[in-house]
Specification:
It contains 1 helix and 3 strands, in the order E-E-E-H. With 81 residues, the protein is α+β, with helices and mostly antiparallel strands. The chain has one domain. Strands 2-1-3 form a 3-stranded antiparallel sheet. The longest helix has 10 residues. The radius of gyration is 13 Å and the shape is globular. The termini are far apart. The structure holds zinc ion. Zinc ion binds next to helix 1.
């Protein structure tokens, strides 16, 4: 059985002067640089485990969130709060 691994990858705003400033978090499959919503993300952008998706929802990409929910039977961490 193949388990699809997801990661959160940040969309950053280098134009704002801070290369690490996170505009929003997207979801990618495995080590892809293209988010589920089609956004191309930088290989230098911060990544974090998809289990953190629920921690800061204000900065999440809504399209990625919807597609991610469709690809996963449940949100990891959903039941810990
Ligand atoms: Zn997205």
């Amino acid at each position: 059985m193949v388990i699809m691994m997801h990661q959160m990858r940040a969309e950053t705003a280098p134009a704002a002067g801070d290369p690490d400033s996170v505009v929003s978090w997207h979801i990618v499959r495995n080590a892809d640089l293209t988010a589920l919503c089609g956004k191309e993300l930088s290989p230098a952008a911060p990544v974090q485990d998809a289990t953190r998706w629920t921690l800061d929802p204000d900065h999440n990409c809504h399209t990625c969130g919807a597609l991610y929910l469709r690809e996963t039977p449940y949100l990891p961490g959903e039941h810990t709060g």
